[in-house]
Amino acid sequence: MQVNTQFTEKKYPMKWSTEAEDAIKKVPFFVRKKVKARVEKEARSRSKAGITLADVLATQKRYLTGMASEVKGYQLDTCFGPSGCPNTIAPDAGLMEKIEAILKGADFLGFLKSMGVTDLKFHHEFRVTVAECPNACSQPQIKDIGIIAAKLPRIGDEACTACEACVETCRDDAVTIDETMPRPIVDLQRCQACGQCIPVCPTGTIAEAASGYRIQLGGKLGRHPQLARELPGIYSSADTLDIVSACITLYKAGSQKGERFGEILKERDIQRLIDRFGSKAMAGE
Ligand code: SF4
Ligand code: SF4
Ligand code: SF4
Q1: What does the pLDDT average to over 266-270?
Q2: If you average pLDDT over every residue of the chain, what do you get?
Q3: What is the total count of domains within the chain?
Q4: What mean pLDDT is predicted for residues 138-156?
Q5: What is the whole-number distance in angstroms between the Cα of residue 195 and the centre of ligand 3?
Q6: 123/260 Cα distance (integer angstroms)
Q7: Are residues 142 and 44 part of one domain?
Q8: Which ligand is nearest to the CA of 90?
Q9: Domain of 38, in residue numbers
Q10: CB 115 within 8 A of CB 256
Q11: Three-state DSSP class for 78?
C-alpha cells in the first residue's frame, strides 16, 4: 500500500522534546526550516513518533557538513495556505508546480558554476515564495521574487442594507459607509486586496473586481538588507509565470558571481518590466 506521507505528516505531527526545540532554534534561521524538515523526515524513516535532542544534533551535523551537495540553486516555498489556512485567496492551486518547473528549467546550479561560483552556499540560491493572502506569512518582502495572492473588491449595483459587515471585516479601514451615499466606498489606496469583505456582504453589493497575484522583486536580508519593490497592479497566474521567467533572464544577464537578484535589479529594469507587463495588470475600479 502506498502511504500518503503528506496526509500522515498533517494528521500526526511529530512531537518535539523541549531540548530538541531549543536546539533547532539555535540553527541559523536561513536553514532552520530545511533542517527541521530533514530532522522530521529522518525520524519518520526510522518510525519514530517524536524528536529528541540526539535526532536534531545528528541531522544538523549531516546537513551542515554536506551543505554544498544540498544546494540546488533555487528555493521555492509557500505559506500555510495550501495546508488549509482559511485566509487563502490563491486563484491557482497549481501555481507552485508551474513555478517549480520554471526554476528547474533555469538550471541555476549550472549557471552559478558557469559564473565560477564553486563554493556553493544557500545564500547563492534564487528565492521565490508564494503567500496565499496579503498577510504574507512566507515573507515575500525579503525574497528575490515574492508572489502574493490578491483579490480586489468592487462596488456593484445591488442595493446595500448598511449592515456594516464589510466595514467591520476590513482590517485596513478601507471601507466606509457615508449615510448620504447608497453604497459603501472602498479606498483602493488603503485596500490590501485580501478579498475578505466580499464573502461577508449578504447582498452582493461588494463583489470581486480582480483576482490574481501581486509581485514583489529584489528583497533580501544579509549585510545590506532591502525590502522588495512591488510591480503595480495584480497579475493573472499566466502573467505571473511570464514575469518570473523575465526576472530569471534579468538575473542571469546581470549576475557576475552569484549576487542576489536585489543587487542586480535596477530601477530601469523595474520600469522595463512595467512597460512590458503593466498593460496586463488588473486594477480596481
Ligand atoms: S499568508 Fe495568508 S493564506 Fe498564507 S498562511 Fe498566512 S494568513 Fe494563511
Ligand atoms: S479587500 Fe480591501 S477593502 Fe476588502 S477587506 Fe480586504 S483590505 Fe478591506
Ligand atoms: S456588507 Fe454589503 S450590505 Fe452590508 S454594508 Fe457592506 S456593502 Fe452594504
Answers
A1: 96
A2: 89
A3: 2
A4: 96
A5: 14
A6: 8
A7: no
A8: 1
A9: 5-65
A10: yes
A11: strand
